[in-house]
TrEMBL record:
<dbReference type="GO" id="GO:0019301">
    <property type="term" value="P:rhamnose catabolic process"/>
</dbReference>
<feature type="domain" description="Carbohydrate kinase FGGY C-terminal">
    <location>
        <begin position="252"/>
        <end position="434"/>
    </location>
</feature>
<dbReference type="InterPro" id="IPR043129">
    <property type="entry name" value="ATPase_NBD"/>
</dbReference>
<dbReference type="Pfam" id="PF00370">
    <property type="entry name" value="FGGY_N"/>
</dbReference>
<dbReference type="InterPro" id="IPR018484">
    <property type="entry name" value="FGGY_N"/>
</dbReference>
<dbReference type="InterPro" id="IPR049382">
    <property type="entry name" value="FGGY_C_2"/>
</dbReference>
<comment type="similarity">
    <text>Belongs to the FGGY kinase family.</text>
</comment>
<dbReference type="Pfam" id="PF21546">
    <property type="entry name" value="FGGY_C_2"/>
</dbReference>
<dbReference type="GO" id="GO:0004370">
    <property type="term" value="F:glycerol kinase activity"/>
</dbReference>
<dbReference type="GO" id="GO:0005829">
    <property type="term" value="C:cytosol"/>
</dbReference>
<protein>
    <submittedName>
        <fullName>Carbohydrate kinase</fullName>
    </submittedName>
</protein>
<feature type="domain" description="Carbohydrate kinase FGGY N-terminal">
    <location>
        <begin position="12"/>
        <end position="233"/>
    </location>
</feature>
<keyword id="KW-0808">Transferase</keyword>
<keyword id="KW-0418">Kinase</keyword>
<dbReference type="GO" id="GO:0006071">
    <property type="term" value="P:glycerol metabolic process"/>
</dbReference>
Amino acid sequence: MGMKGKERKPVVAIFDVGKTNKKLFLFDENYELVYEKSARFLETLDEDGDACENLESLRLSVFDSLQEIFRRDEFDVKAINFTSYGASFVYLDEDGRPLAALYNYLKEYPKALADHLHQSYGGVDQFSLDTASPSLGSLNSGLQVYRLKKEQPDIYAKTKYALHLPQYLSFLLSGKTYSDMTSIGCHTALWDYKKQDYHTWVRDEGIDKKLAPIVDASAVFPATFPGSTFKIGVGLHDSSSALIPYLLNFHEPFILISTGTWCISINPFNDQPLTKSELESDCLFYLSYEGKPVKASRLFAGHEHELQSKRIADYFDTSTAKFKHMDIDWNIVKKLEGQPISSDLAAFAKQDLAQYANYTEAYHALILHLIKAQIASTKLIQAGKKTTRIFVDGGFSKNAIYMNLLAHAFPEMEVYAASMAQATAIGAALVIHEHWNNQPIPNDLIEIRFFRA
């Protein structure tokens, strides 16, 4: 009798492609992280000299990192899925080769072109309301396809399909071209939320013929590798992916405030049509993995926190590290609450720091300002089904002052700090759970801490 080899561990592989970091994660059947690899590569330039993602490096990196995993005999890869930032298209020819750069969503957009499109469909306000997409130039990725058609008709003519980045990554391994709802639904200006279909302009311009057929977010396809048995997911837009663990774990209506550079308040239980004023306050809809509208509002609060923390640290000649684990001092809060606080995010930048006794007081004042802006932003999406819970994940969930003040501001809600490492990647694994995992979905994926009002 020969010795039986070590049992290989069944895993799912998830590529999580951010603007800066490209990561590969392997999770076992309990969603424990068993392997992680991170890469960064230099941007390249498009034909106008603007910085853009290096598609070739990205493609090679996907294959290289997979090769590395296949060489290790402790893992048995059952399935692979992808999540990445939205608002970016890859234009493929008949043979599946990219025809153009992966244009940066921050690329300057020709005003005349956007104006022309908006005017043809009821003006910018109407157009933005219909598509739930604030007018954001290249960040409305549908307008990138429109631009290609108008400015580079030869490349457009050769384009068989325009795929959003997550679907392009999936295509590399499955050879299949599909579109997914989460990518179509992220401020692309492609989707008409009233009709629940592509907006009229997409059909009028014939752009729908360049968009691959829509398939369910939980769909999987066989890999093109000869002899391989693993399944390939269709890929997801990262913001929608990060919501999946919450949707599967909590069934009572909730709001999630996902904090980072942007603090995004997400309400999957509010599908009331957008109003003009909501749109102007940076509200929009996403589509969930089930294709349902999810109302969201954005606040540039993490960015502001970074700038102002540094300003406070410099002024009081200390380091921002001092703020990391600062506890809330309710006496300071009472003292500061007497002052008028604006809900405008930029208001704290105009405050004279000399009025604060020390850095502790100044930092409390900063968070009071941020919370005031956060409340205004979150209230924009609060309507809909009666929500009783707020979850905060990301950087601010670890900030005791922020969390206590938020709980204080929403006394009628249960406020929780939620921590879940790699929520985005785990979302992409969960959405294809049934195709690779024999275990039930664990119900303790998300750690939560309650904060009393």
